[in-house]
């Protein structure tokens, strides 16, 4: 069964950015910003060495979910869309297959504060709802990762959960976590393309 992202025509252009599928050749460009302390602090699977990163990056399941964000031909970030099944009772489980997605993102800090992350994530939301037909998107982060949850709020996602010390951070120990979500039916009222 093809990955849902395989069904789309790439690249996809936004006002200032180009979104495309990740390829093995993106290894060095993504390593350059993912190993920086500002990003390394928050990414879910931080690797300590280039060799470890290469092994993880080149896994087929990792590349399948990964999109690259380019500005004027330069890789400035990446996005993740993991298409998932919704929770369902057994009798209707077939109707809940591949209907929702988990979003993720990492942006080169050198390009922060210019609206690029907002533009890229809004485009991914639009792709998810309008082109892939997903019904719900969600994203999670550590409470201390304020830039990430502020981005979720900027794109119109709703805070659904604030958990207390349920998320284990590699250096900070047990910290609070946040979960945000957005439904397809809410997207047009938030500026999504009808």
TrEMBL record:
InterPro entries linked: Acyl_CoA_acyltransferase, GNAT_dom, N-acetyltransferase
NAD recorded as keyword: no
Keyword ATP-binding among record annotations: no
Top-level EC class: transferase
Top-level taxon: Bacteria
Keyword terms of this UniProt record: Acyltransferase, Transferase
N-acetyltransferase domain residues: 17-185
Enzyme Commission numbers on file: 2.3.-.-
MF GO annotations: acyltransferase activity
SUPFAM superfamilies: Acyl-CoA N-acyltransferases (Nat)
Name used for this protein in its record: GNAT family N-acetyltransferase
PROSITE patterns linked: GNAT
């Amino acid at each position: 069964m093809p990955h849902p992202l395989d069904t789309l025509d790439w690249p996809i252009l936004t006002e200032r950015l180009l979104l495309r599928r990740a390829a093995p050749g993106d290894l060095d460009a993504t390593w350059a910003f993912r190993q920086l302390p500002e990003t390394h602090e928050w990414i879910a699977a931080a690797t300590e060495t280039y060799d470890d990163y290469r092994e993880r990056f080149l896994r087929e399941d990792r590349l399948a979910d990964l999109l690259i964000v380019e500005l004027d031909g330069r890789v400035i970030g990446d996005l993740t869309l993991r298409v998932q099944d919704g929770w369902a009772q057994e009798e209707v489980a077939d109707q809940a297959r591949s209907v929702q997605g988990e979003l993720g993102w990492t942006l080169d800090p050198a390009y922060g504060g210019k609206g690029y992350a907002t533009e890229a994530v809004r485009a991914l939301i639009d792709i998810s709802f309008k082109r892939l037909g997903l019904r719900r998107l969600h994203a999670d982060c550590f409470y201390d990762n304020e830039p990430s949850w502020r981005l979720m709020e900027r794109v119109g996602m709703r805070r659904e959960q604030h958990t207390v010390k349920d998320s284990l951070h590699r250096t900070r120990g047990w910290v609070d976590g946040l979960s945000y979500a957005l439904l397809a039916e809410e997207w047009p009222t938030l500026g999504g393309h009808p």
